[in-house]
Amino acid sequence: MIIDFSKLSTIAIGSKLDVKIVNEDNYNNELIIGRASNSLVCGGNIGVLDDKYNFIEIKNGYLRVGAKTSNRALYNFTKKNNIAGFEFLSKLPGSIGGSIKMNAGMKSYEISNNLVLINHKSKNEFKFGYRYSHIDEPIFYADFEIKDGFNSELVEEFKNMRKNQPKLLSLGSSFKNPVGNYAGAMIEKVGLKGIKFGDVGFSEVHANFLVNYGNGNCENVIKAINEAKKRVFEEFGIELQEEIKIIL
Ligand SMILES: Cc1cc2nc3c(=O)[nH]c(=O)nc-3n(C[C@H](O)[C@H](O)[C@H](O)COP(=O)(O)OP(=O)(O)OC[C@H]3O[C@@H](n4cnc5c(N)ncnc54)[C@H](O)[C@@H]3O)c2cc1C
């Protein structure tokens, strides 16, 4: 199937690629992409999950969720069913598979917190940290613990956290925050806030967000990323690590 990643991705940049529809029987080392809300897909051997992995059900006392399910759908389900621990998904674009792989979250609320099983394997078989997991297999479904008490106040808190973030097309934070530092502040200090590379630039609202002003392309993003890494290293001796995934 042909997917134009400039149409799928939240930054509206990417290549048109022939991708495989993947299930548990035909997977053959393709790189699985969900909603490309954290990924710049410029090439590669790409797979997307079959639609049968888009489901939410309560099974054996756990919340079983297909990895193709959108974060929004799971958020809506947990709100409707008064389930706690998924409030942060209200403000997170993407799919459950991508979110688990990235250990996505806000503040101390991370998707791995309530996770019990991935493809029937215990989550303890995998390592999770700040915006990463060591899962090197496709995620088809996951089981989560069910705790009562959806918290609307948290939803409000997460909404407020978005106030200093750009509204333009982006992939969220470009770099992880180095320990004890803020990537955005460092990018600002090296003079890149508001600076454009072609039609992509470090946002004037929050310098850690690369935004597409309309006609950005993969080369623009890569140039911007490399320039920020170079300048921050020269100034602070710190190697910034991308949070976004660049797939060539
Ligand atoms: C405006 C904006 C704000 C954001 N804010 C936040 C935030 O506050 N916190 C946060 O954590 N993230 C944030 N993000 C990033 C993004 O929302 C999350 O990383 C999201 O959960 C990624 O889901 P996805 O399906 O789009 O993943 P993709 O971008 O499609 O993939 C991300 C990674 O996961 C892998 N992957 C995807 N699906 C699977 C699968 N089924 N099996 C195995 N690997 C898979 C991909 O290969 C890739 O390595 C933000 C993004 C945007 C655009």
End-to-end Cα distance, whole Å, is 19 Å
What is the general shape?
A: globular
The CATH topology of the largest domain is given as: Uridine Diphospho-n-acetylenolpyruvylglucosamine Reductase, domain 3
Biggest β-sheet strands, sense, barrel: 5 strands, antiparallel
The number of distinct β-strands equals 20
In what range is the share of β-strand residues?
25-35%
CATH C-level label of the largest domain? Alpha Beta
Low-confidence stretches: none
Over the alpha carbons, how many angstroms does the gyration radius reach?
Answer: 18 Å
**Considering DSSP H and I runs of 4 or more, what fraction of the residues is helical?**
10-25%
Rounded mean pLDDT is: 97
Instruction: List the bound ligands.
Output: flavin-adenine dinucleotide
Strands of the largest sheet, in order across it?
7-8-15-11-12
Helix segment count? Answer: 6
Indicate the structural class: alpha+beta
**SSE ordering:** EHEEEEEEEHHEEEEEEEHEHEEEHE
What is the count of structural domains? 3
Tell me the CATH architecture of the largest domain. 2-Layer Sandwich
